[in-house]
Batch of 4 targets.
Target 1
Amino acid sequence: MPSHDASELSQRLGRQAEAVCRHYLSHGRRQGNYWLVGDVRNTPGRSMFVRLKGPETGKGAAGHWTDAATGEYGDLLDVIREACGLVDFKDVADEARSFLSLPHPEPNEHRSRKPAARTGSSEAARRLFTMAQPITGTLAEAYLRKRGIAAFHETGALRFHPRCYYRPDEHEPTEIWPAMIAAVTDLGGRITGGHRTWLDPDGFSEATLGKAPIDRPKRSMGDLLGHAVRFGVAGSVMAAGEGIETMLSLRCVLPTMPVVAALSAAHLAAIRFPDTLRRLYIARDDDPAGDGAMATLIDRAKQAGIEAIVLSPVLADFNEDLRMPGVDALRAAIRVQIAPQDVARFMDLAA
């Protein structure tokens, strides 16, 4: 749907803001010039407020809402989407037109609309990353800090989306959870895929480590083979491993070393090497899949004339090492595993 159509629908809904709220946010009530309800999903409460009067557009427009508890905000099209559990914007627009008793557009009215990105495609990953916001001050930053991670320089590959769709399977309804979004890029920096870590809005617990209490709180999308989530620009030296949290944990003790997260053991084994790379540190996870990826990567590096050095955690992975023994113990363990010249280059000079 063209953006001007969305704007027009939003304005029309704003003119009937109270009627929209009474229909889709029936668990709320009017107080002065606002409609108060628990949240955009029509939960009883008072933390979300919808403006019932105001200009048609801009700051303070009728129909605009804010949830003081979560920081979420939007317009009445968002209310309809959430209240009806709709995924595609076309369905949201159709529902809004039905409420407003407007005729539905003819198919040729949509010819100028940007085509929908195929679910799980590289284009869908790029659009999702564009829609997300920087992680500073968000639940994503809080999640990483609870995982013991305090190094946030060169983390532009990470963003936060407060309402990211999650569908358990094709037979289950779509759910909405906050999520950390990571950009998967090729050696040239082009986004080829994405990774979502759905987060628990109630905070961190040892049981979930801050991830949402769902079956698969981590999922990838797009073209991943050979590519990775990148922190820092690789030169002659870099480190590679599986998880985002694992590699950011290493950056807490090697803050200037470029690192990449391949997101799985299979993809770690297939990462592409920069032409400038001369020494590769392999941050292995302590499990059979991690050992297999390590062996394959060592062979590939050797064939490419690249020195490969394995970094082994004390526990299951380097994030566990960071959280359990602590940053000083992790630094001491890494110091004796990396080349002496890299101690001076990436550890001592950065301290």
Target 2
Amino acid sequence: MEEQKFTINKDENSQTFTFGNPPAELILDLGEKLGPITLAYETWGKLNEQNSNAILIVHALSGDSHAAGADGWWENLIGPGKGIDTDKYFVICSNVIGGCRGSTGPSSMNPKTGEPYGTDFPIITIGDMVNAQKRLIDRFGIEKLVSVIGGSMGGMQVLQWMVAYPDTIRSAIPIATTLKHTPQQIAFNEVSRQAIMADPDWKNGHYYGSAVPAKGLAVARMIGHITYMSDASMAEKFGRRLRPDKEPFKFSAEFEVEGYLHYRGDNFVKRFDANSYLYITKAIDYFNLLNGNKKLASIFAGLKAKVLVISFKSDWLYPTYQSQEIVKACKLSGVDTTYCEINSTYGHDSFLLETEQETQLIKHFLNTVSNGHNGGKQ
């Protein structure tokens, strides 16, 4: 197999912020230290003189800081006059720590060895990702965000902001997410991790400078992508159609759905690091806001922010009952909460694709947040 390497394509709008130089490293949730840390981030719009019009966008598992603009993963939602209006708001999105799109992660250089971290990189949590983002927000001199918004793993980060920094946000929009990972959700991630670690090119995570575990990572992405779609969307998109260019071999990709999964897996290898996939999926699995036998009614106690929870009817990876549990926890804590379930057939991917309906909901919600602050002045 031809040697493959993932690449980092930095947008011209991309910037970096480095902090945590020894001895002031970031103390991670599991007790280890990490530093220095670099966060890659992008911004859109202009921060006002009061530093009061900022919105933080947080990304999902395979996302990055390029949320808006050409080829941005939420380009239809973020921009001038759009749902998250950059004529009105200063929008920030950073790549999470543990990632491979410019932020410090397993593929970054370990200052102690002069070699890439590989699996010497410490285990991270959603809380660690959010703590690093807080450093970035502080760097801008922002005392209070208008909102923090994200779907899937991004939604977990939103929930973590609600718990860890309740006084720093005026509103929050968790989309297609959960308070904790279930055994089934953990199981899917574990099968994906095993696919990567079973690849002979993984080399216990120290493969940098040589062939990457391309086959294992591609299979992991194929597994993940199945969970992102729905039975209805697969039936509509592929049916049982055979590929016109199928190879004359019994176990080649004969069905269109098979060819699609191979395509998605092969392309993912070109832009993502296998070790980052391992670390980030483990962080997702660790996520549990009910840790320590916390009661549902106490999770968001004292939170003054307004909350909009969005779910999608066909999402079976993070089904609507999990979003409803978030709403229940907010309501029990006396939090001003709005809930909307969107009727979509796209499955979990709906949070990336149903931007027209999300635009209507988010734009109206943010207007209610803005109108309640300084007479609507930003």
Target 3
Amino acid sequence: MPRPQEEDLFSESTMTFGEHLAELQKCLWRAVVGLMIGFAIGLYFGTTVVNWIQIPLSNALTQYYQKEAEDKLHRAAAETAGAEQLEKLDRQAKERLYERQMLAEEVYLDPAEVVKQLKTAYPQELKSLPELKSSAKPGSPDNLLRVFLWHRKADDQRVRIKSMSAQETFAIYIKASLLVGVLIASPWILYQLWLFISAGLYPNEKKMIHVYLPISVGLFFLGATIAFAFVFKPVLNFLFSYNQGMGIDPDPRISEWLSFVMILPVGFGAGFQLPLVMFFLERVGIFTAESYLRQWKLFVFAIVVIAAVLTPPDPYSMSFLAGPLVILFFGGILLCKWMPKKKSAFESLDR
């Protein structure tokens, strides 16, 4: 049965190119307004966030210098102690390093200079102390006394995060506030995105926004949470392992670390939108569930490439993103099969 000429089944969903651009402009403007409101709220929490995001980096630096001190203390004890005493000294060192959260710094002293300074500071008390003749060689640790100075972790300057300029601290505060603003405004931004997408859908499909917006927001926060909870520590340990192997002590800047903190969770959150993107592409007819399955190897390869682009150049963060995305890819296929695209109304009229 041919369709009557005057009947337009899709009249309610038909939009011109100009109308699409106008709708996009509205959605972008509303999203920017929401982001600015979130940023204004984030200014209140900026300082707290900066203190909080330093914790993973500070812990990784502490672990790095604990391992370095443990190795140095073991080598120093092995030079002078027997097997039983060496085990006792190692146990004492680990107790200070890991239980008391102290760090050891290796220094070399000239015994003659130490005696001289002590006698100068306490002339009456140490007047009977004989002076020593210095046998230290300039520029060499030979004939010097090796001493380990212990610091509380909180007082050790090597694990304190540093800024390199006066304005850097303020810029960090603004960036941290912006990060909070993005997280606060992300439901509203995703809602505007789905409003723009739904403008091109048929009336009976626009109801999907009420179902998939919560899923979209949930996936975004799930990705960001995985980045915060599981990715930072192994990534930092992996990167610092190269410092230990090459004998280069790390001295990271807070601005570089904050940029890393901002990019990784947002990248994870965006990547976790994959099932909904697949569902949308299936709805508009670009792909089908069968085509996803047929070309799954190509899609998995693309996921690995995208994960490498969205994450720093290390295997841990890439694997932490690529692994869940592969699972979500097959979840997207199940979503397309569970809610298949309905047949066109033209097909039902032609029968």
Target 4
Amino acid sequence: MKISKKDALMWFRFFAELPDDEEMLPNQQEIAYATFYQIERAVSARREKMMAEIPGLKCLEGRTYYVGKEEDFPRGCKSCLLGSGLSAVRKTNKCNLNCPFCYDFGEMDMQPPIGEGLWEIGGSRFYEDDIDLLLKIQKKPTGIAYVYLEPFMEIEKYYGVIKKFRDAGVHQHMYTNGTLCTEENLKALGEAGLDELRFNLGASRCADKVIASMKTAKKYIPKVGIETPMTPDFFEKFMAKKDMILDTGVDFINCAELHLNDNNIGNYEGENLYISRLGYLSPIWSRDLTLQFMKQAAEETWPLVVHDCSNRTKFARNLHLQSQEKGTFGASGYGCEFAKMPYEAFLPVLMDENFSFVDEEPLPFGYNPGDIVL
């Protein structure tokens, strides 16, 4: 069903008014899915043209796109996409910032603690001494990532755990907004054995202090990069300080396609959104900006890798992780993060006169408001 934009808008206005407890009929679900496909199809057609204009665009074993030298592609991402998956190590349930793109926006003070003296790995709780036991019993992962929320809130607790995984030969990377970095704690991280430090530069809006900390981090940590959800604000701030940022010597930039959930979607009200494979819901401009960013990096031969960490990449990541866990063929943890689809959030793109579907057809009998829908 190649539903027209006009018909899609009519129906989505109706869907947006439905009570939360009212189930949609099968024909109505078909209309919703056809609309999502038409939006995604139009977005994909435009992006194919954009990608064709990026010099030297490369693909990592069919999983994700990037520009730059393959040997510089971050090992943490290779662990996620090609290795045994992304094994998250969690400790800190607090953050000193409140970013509009954060998945925990509005609930930052309600994040449950991991537990005094404890670490969460694979959904289980461990004391630091238990990690030796874990590494003896289970097959060690190709890589782990320190996530949730801002580790530098209590960075001194991390050094011992990092040393244990370093001694076991496990690649380790950590995420930070960079605002609490000092020469002392960055040096301590390097001495402990951290392999990669990833700065969410968009969290500080490309603050000079954080840019300086990235340069300091390069003195002590083998690989330093930027990983930030791509937004218009980050794109603008980065370009204004591009030379200063590239001068830090960072090794890679992961441009994450911003995806939304119940917590942060309100911060992007009125934006044109799309949903990828009925899974992640994102502003259309996020990956569009990434492709513009990559094109400029390739044309100007920036001395680093720029990685298109898109919804498609997340889809590939989840397929790969399920294969590592011996899941059934086609199994994936990728899916929609909304319990109830926010149909009202798609009204702006359907009302946008500058956004067109690739092609359209009239609704068949049974799918118009005046028809009997069985």
